[in-house]
Amino acid sequence: MKKRNWKKLVGTVCAAAMAASMAGCGNSGSGTEQSESKSDDGITITFAEHVADIETQEPHMMKIIDAFEKSHPGIKVDISGKEVSEHNTQMTLLAGEDKLPDIFWLEQAPAKEFAQNGYLYDLTDVLKDYGINDSLLPGLVNSCTVDGRDYGMPSEVMMVGFFYNKDLFAQAGIDKAPVTYEEFTDAVDKLNAAGITPLTVGAKDNYSIWAFETMLARYGFFEKLDGLLDGSISWNNEDFIHFFEKAEEMRENDTFTKDISNMGYFEAKEQFLGGNAAMFNSGAWDIGEFESSDMASKIGFFWGPTFSDSEYEQEIGIKASGGVYVISAKAAKDPELLDAIMQFWQFYYGPEGTKIIAEDTSALPCSTYDGSIDQKEHPVLGTMIEALNDDWKAVTEPFNSLSSTVAYGFFDATFGVMNGVYTPEEAADYVEGLQSAER
Amino acid sequence: MHWLSTRRAKTVMVLPTLIIYAVFIIVPVFVAIYYSFTDYSGLGKAEFVGIQNYTRMFHDALFLIAFRNTVVVLICSAVFLLAGSFLMALLMNVSFRGNAFFKMVVFAPYVIAPIIIGIIWGYILNPNYGLVNSVLRSLGLDVLAIEWIGGTKWSPLALAIVFTWQVLGFHATIFLSGIKAIPGDIYEACSIDGANAFQRLFYVTIPMLKETFIINIVLIVTGVFKIYELVYQMTGGGPAHQSELLTSYMYFTVFSSRRYGYGMAIAVAILVLSIIGSFSYIKITTRKQRSEA
User: What is the CA radius of gyration of chain B?
Assistant: First the structure.
């Protein structure tokens, strides 16, 4: 009898524990969502960004949210941010737990994976209904598509290349930004001779590869892409070997800062802004920070060197959508929440948001902007707009056409050559190994 | 009188902890084992791929580098830590003015978050402007001003040094508690028999601390297999993954490279290696003790 009572007790405890855990599961479902997104004060949109310090790194977003909340009293945007790699990790984990925020930033390759697995809302119709496609710059419409359907809105105009310090160039006797690889090498030699560090790159953060992606595109990446994916072309091909050889030559020519492997992206930027390196590998997202620095008027921009040993198009630059903003499929199930979200994006890409981006924070807007930029007041922005409107062909980031595994493999391989860890052949074989595992 | 030491009472008291332990420790281990046999990418469906992820490790140059680095860190840490923490414990056992403050200073690094330790030591060991190389250069010892971090050779040693600095106080405290547990009359008897300090150390203290040594070795092995933050902050695993340890490489594989299934296989390998490492040491020392007895 005693034994039976004991069994009953254990059974009751177990049942209670299971019931509690199941109740916990239930709470993370729709009931909680409702209470999180809607309250007496109105609707709250949860928004996850890919920068740790939103106020400093994306000031336009904070200003737009403030302006939006003032003009839409019933809607609040609860934004939070984490450094990009942490953000990517967190989004993957939250997807697994079905707890994604209502709207969030993603790189394009993962965005497509998220979409294919049903985590994202199909934006095709709402982008038209809310007039967002009409506002966007023509090259930024359909920024992230899967099977012809839109799943992302552009977060920025992705323009990457080399920023340079005009004063340091002049000090080294360089009168204009280099265009060809030979001119680039010549500039590096002159800078080294003048005791100036030529190029700073944040190699410790392997995502900061940017300008080297353009160089890969100049060795026929997009022309070879289908072959790379189906296996008819290997990463260890003559053109890509030439690309890696250029990275190796740059290392041998002392192009990079000495401490490249201990230098993260932010340290590299600090080195450049401190006048301690002549060139910096980065992109349009840094315009605002450059504008607010003492050396704004001294900063120039070029797309990176062109190569005479490649038969592919050389006058190209990455001028496309970078990462994308997406809406979680779960959030879109609530029509009121979806409407609030789309009102926010309508505001963001509309005239009010675009004006804030262009005039208040010196960033490149993704939408058409009718105002004018005072080039004297915003010299870096003016330089970038000039580059954006030049006649070099616009291409997208190669990164966006690859899976995360292969893309990060390519980053590691390139930095491996720049650090002297890999030979060009080893680097190409490394990426090929990752690519072939996916075929 | 109602006794709480009955089998049933003990079981009831242990049960909540057991349930929590099972849910948060045991179940995830089995989940990881399950995913290690799949090609799961973190999203979508997981396809069964058999032992492919395990065989891949033997052909993955970066895994082998991470494994080699982990072994180097393990050996260096074991040597530095066992010797260092034991000597530190002997010092802490001596009565002197400021002993309590000394103990606090020795233990302090253990309570600092590893990520902060990584930041501090990243600056100290930076080959170009770091404190260590600056001091060495100012002393004319340029030969010793090596590329502690960021290169392909010395990062594992640098990680072992920093790990040792971080946990030295903890291991010294374990040794100290072991030393304190040795009955004073044994030392008294030795002294009467004419044993000097070294003889007391080698014939009494060390033999009587065998269990403590085992505990420390097991903790060092499991500790090394858990080092992640130091790698993340000091070297980022670079250049080109040359300074990865198994745990940091597992993290990269899962979250950056998005090969969740393969990453779980590495996690299982880490678990197995740490179990083998710990148990084989315990087994060897226990067998030795038995044969000596």
Answer: 23
